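4.2 Preliminary Data

To establish feasibility before requesting continued support, the project team ran the inverse folding procedure on a target of 444 residues. The structure was first converted into the token representation described in Section 3, and no sequence information of any kind was made available to the design step. The complete token record follows.
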């Protein structure tokens, strides 16, 4: 690693962390826009919130701009189009269940004919404002719940009795859109994951006329949805396991591992397993995003020295040089040194200091690069769009998800597992009682 990076990174990161992470005022000149795709399942979830959002927007942000694209962006993380679609359908089902959105139990991608009909309906309608938002929500329901008969009826009416409208706040274009998102003041906000962050921003700038009441069932950082002693004991008895696949140069890996280890592992008796990945170039990250996440999760972050490819190999060598029982604690200490103490583990003095801290007398002779490649392949087989990748195993089932945006799923899954367990037990008890002759009604 260059001397400039080794010395300047900790200074720069500390300065950046101490300055306000939220720009005091974002420009309202361009208003508030939402980008949608008719064949994007996240857009289907997003439109279910638009009328509620529009209700509380100040006049400075009205009318809400709706931009509908017919072009999909390239799938992330090297996924194929099919893999990305399958991931989105499954992820949207999870989000719909958690946040109480309307969603088909067996969702299917809308047909090309249905998409074309839907676009003509929306292009031709003279409806504006809230009426248009209600219409677009209805059209998405028809598309994603295969209500093609209703859709065709609307299409015939729109084709025969209406013509394309030229309404400024309704735009149809070919901008590549990966998934639905809002834009405000030059910044992007994921339509579902970042909705509450967007609301906090608008509220701070006094751009809402009243407090929002959304359907989103959000789990705050360091607040548990399970606190009952009996429920916790049930989860403990199931011995949940959680595998983390982390890129060592990615600060989100540190934030996620630290949060889970400090807040969730002991609380739920989770057996953690960490699988480091080879260098993926994730040291070129969004500093403001990482800083914001650090403050939301209350995980210390900075001063740091971003690891290079050489650093990650040295970090992995230290990790694999300790016994398996010590590895999670070792990874915690390694990442903590890098992301909160500015250590450069490609620098011999820093490497030796960490080796001593971990009590490593002899470094492993195993080919660490080969181990990282094996972890890469296992991780790739999970077909996830982002890192870190998490695999949770409990009650004979496994659940795979990714990124800091989905850490809430750990507790949500535990809650759902218990709910299903209690339902099964109640059903079994009812069946036993129904077969017991003592419970038969006596004839009068």
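Position-by-position output of the design step:
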């Amino acid at each position: 690693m260059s001397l400039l990076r080794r010395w300047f990174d900790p200074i720069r990161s500390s300065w950046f962390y101490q300055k306000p992470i939220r720009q005091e005022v974002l420009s309202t000149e361009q208003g508030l826009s939402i980008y949608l795709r008719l064949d994007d399942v996240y857009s289907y979830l997003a439109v279910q919130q638009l009328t509620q959002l529009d209700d509380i927007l100040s006049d400075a942000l009205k009318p809400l701009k709706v931009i509908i694209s017919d072009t999909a962006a390239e799938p992330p993380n090297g996924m194929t189009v099919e893999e990305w679609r399958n991931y989105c359908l499954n992820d949207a089902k999870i989000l719909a269940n958690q946040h109480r959105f309307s969603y088909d139990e067996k969702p299917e991608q809308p047909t090309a004919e249905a998409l074309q009909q839907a676009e003509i309906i929306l292009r031709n309608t003279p409806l504006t404002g809230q009426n248009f938002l209600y219409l677009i929500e209805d059209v998405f329901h028809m598309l994603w719940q295969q209500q093609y008969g209703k859709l065709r009826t609307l299409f015939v009416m729109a084709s025969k009795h209406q013509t394309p409208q030229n309404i400024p706040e309704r735009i149809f274009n070919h901008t590549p859109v990966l998934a639905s998102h809002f834009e405000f003041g030059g910044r992007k906000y994921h339509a579902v994951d970042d909705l509450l962050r967007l609301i906090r921003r608008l509220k701070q700038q006094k751009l809402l006329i009243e407090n929002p009441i959304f359907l989103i069932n959000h789990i705050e950082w360091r607040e548990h949805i399970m606190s009952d002693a009996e429920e916790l004991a049930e989860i403990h008895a199931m011995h949940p396991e959680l595998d983390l696949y982390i890129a060592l140069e990615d600060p989100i890996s540190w934030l996620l591992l630290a949060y889970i280890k400090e807040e969730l592992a002991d609380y739920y008796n989770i057996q953690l397993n960490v699988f480091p990945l080879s260098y993926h170039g994730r040291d070129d990250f969004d500093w403001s995003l990482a800083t914001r996440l650090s403050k939301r999760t209350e995980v210390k972050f900075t001063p740091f020295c971003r690891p290079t490819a050489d650093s990650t190999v040295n970090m992995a060598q230290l990790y694999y040089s300790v016994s398996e029982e010590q590895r999670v604690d070792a990874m915690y200490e390694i990442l903590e040194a890098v992301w909160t103490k500015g250590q450069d583990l490609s620098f011999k003095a820093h490497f030796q200091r960490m080796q001593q801290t971990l009590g490593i007398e002899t470094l492993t002779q195993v080919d660490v690069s080969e181990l990282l490649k094996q972890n890469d392949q296992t991780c790739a087989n999970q077909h996830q769009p982002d890192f870190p990748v998490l695999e949770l195993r409990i009650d004979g089932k496994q659940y795979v998800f990714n990124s800091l945006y989905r850490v809430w799923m750990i507790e949500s899954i535990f809650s759902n597992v218990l709910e299903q367990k209690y339902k099964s037990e109640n059903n079994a008890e009812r069946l036993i009682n129904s077969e017991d002759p003592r419970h038969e009604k006596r004839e009068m």
